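Reply to dn_fold:

You asked what the input looked like. This is it:
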Amino acid sequence: MLKEKSLLICRFELRLGRVEDANFPSNHFNVVVSALTVGHIIELGSVIREVSRIIKSGGSLIVSDIHPYWPISGHDYVEFFDGSGQEYRIPEYAHLFEEYWNLFRRFKFSVEDVKEPRIDDKLIERFPGLIKYKDMPLAFILKARKEQCALCLQE
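and this is what came back:
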């Protein structure tokens, strides 16, 4: 006998805008994910302030980006080429973990987890040019939760 299964349908829409002014209602999201984004923004505080505004109390924030080791060591841009060979460079700024920590505390986030994946043999096998960076941190992933406010719990 077959049982009916419910499907989780995810809705999303793409919007062009600035992370620092997301133009969403306050307390709108349960989860905010930032992947390879905030390292391209000079002023991290404005981003965390805006995320704090749009995320619900008790909501999760997940940030993953290039490890700050790379821009500090001179790899301070992301480079890519279009189909015609035109080169583009996007600046990469080093935001140290201390900066995240202080901003998370200021905007009432509690850090739940930190990961720093390193360049390992498996990655070097796919990208041999990374051999000289073996065991260096490649990226970081931070998971934080917006603290519950007493007023929010009464609602």
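The first helix runs from residue 44 to 54.
Hope that clears it up.
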